[in-house]
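SAMPLE LOG
Freezer: B-3
Tube label: C17
Construct: single chain, 626 aa
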Amino acid sequence: MTFDFPKSILWAGFLLILWQPVHAGDLSLDEIDRLFSQLESNPSQFESYSDQIELLKQNIATDDIPRTLRLKRALCWATDLTQDNALEQGLNYANEQLLLPMVQADIPTQSDLILCRGWLLQEKGVMADAMSDYNRSVALAYQSEEPRLIADSRSLRGALLSYQGNFADALEDLITSQHLYESLNLTYWARYNLLELATSYRRFGDPATAIRYYEDLLQKYTEIKDKFAVVGVKAEMAMAYETLEDFDKALIYYREVLASWSAQNDPVNTAATRVNMSGTLIKLGRLKEAKAELELAFPDVKPEHVGFYAFKHLFMAQILLAEGKPQDALPLLEIGEESFRNVQNNRGLAELYATKSQVYAALEDWANAFYSLEVQNALHTQLDSQLQSQRTTEMRTRFDTDRIENENRQLIAYQRLREKEMVILQENKFLQFIIIVMGIIILSIVSIFAYKQAQRSKLMERLALTDHLTQLANRRHTYHEGEAMFRSARPGSPLSVILFDADHFKKINDHFGHDVGDKVLIAMAQSSVGQMRKGDLVGRIGGEEFLALLPHTTLEQAVEIAERLRLTIETTDLSDIASGLGMSISAGVATLDSSRDKNFSSFLNRADHALYRAKHNGRNRVEKDD
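STRUCTURE (predicted):
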């Protein structure tokens, strides 16, 4: 393996040592640095953020590399989302800056610009790309060992994880950020992060804890007369009281928030509040008021307003259903479903399918009503399973704050140590600087070589154990794990397997083509993984044949899992792959019997016989071993 270390990085290291910035304007270098610190620690203290950025642009010399990089980061975060085309302009700016050699040579600047791009992508509604940027930014922030960057990147990632329903990981990110912000005395950002933390508890199903945080924040923001923040907290409190089913109190807060946004002539936030408030009015049975609020909100709610675009259609559909107009409700539900799926909001999707089932029932379309109800139940089962798993992780996170605080203290101590070292380095002779920089370069090269070698080893190991099409465990790895589970099985700790394959898969290949067949297998694999629990393993062991290994699982539990898997696959929407395409599976279930199974092959053979019976008895069914 060859590796060419970029010459630009070498030159950047020497330039940072030799460079003495040229003063470009009226502000001194100390004043420039002080203004940067003020903007980064509390942007709300300035009446116009953009004016301060413009002042910095006029005073930073082009050869002042560190401050130029700092300015590039600030310019990205200065994107004014209230302006037309601001999102696209901000994304273009971030992408252009990330291609610059000076940016590529500076990890903290890369991390911050990628984080900013992720934020812009989230505002645009491209959640998958936003999460990808957040993950990359977090990795780079830890690589740079800058506590502030770590706090920023984990705070934004935690907020998105919370919105998507991944509360356990969200809480760990947000708690870590909270300790870092507080340790760094960044009060403004600590309050902002605490608001996201409270919102996560609200979404997690602990609105009482959330309200305690909100009340504390409301008092603090009121004391410092931050009107914008007060409105934001009240909006969150309204939703928390709605979760507690105290709809009257929620409505009081919603009306206060609505009055504030209207007074500030903010049409988007005004419309968002009307949508949220209409949901509360519906729950109170005040449908005329709810409809009036939605009709006022509709013109200002666009598809890019992903947070409440889906809910405005869902709520209006619920009103139309109550008015006896189920046929008019259906198109709105279709729009809402697409929006919920785009932002991966399964909680909203479950509520939508419940409404959809009621609409079809009102139209006496019992097949679609039953199907919608089945999908809703599947979503609820998935959400309940996730919630149970995350409650365990959430409790561990709550009681693991000592570890988080200790890690954060080490980060901050290391940062302060580095700051002291920088002062010493600036006071030392030129030769000492050269030696240190060369040492860093050598260590970086060694680290890169070691990292690349480790990544290559991990990749080779993963490729050897993974099915290239479905990304599941391959036949060899699945059987290896099955043999290991068989050998380690003990009385009182049952081991079960599910052997399943796609029904009439040859017909799918013959009718739609092998490319569609491959996509069906991928969809089948994704659905299978979604039904497995922690500790379970599902692998592809043949063309369309799959094997699930279920340790600590009785026969009855395995049959229940297999049936749930069968139903999920049967109801999977494949219209995006091919029109009119459907999919079902047949499954055989067996549980280890030490008196009958002398080896893993005989154990698996019993599941195979059960699978044969499932196919013989009409397919799309589950049979258990006798």
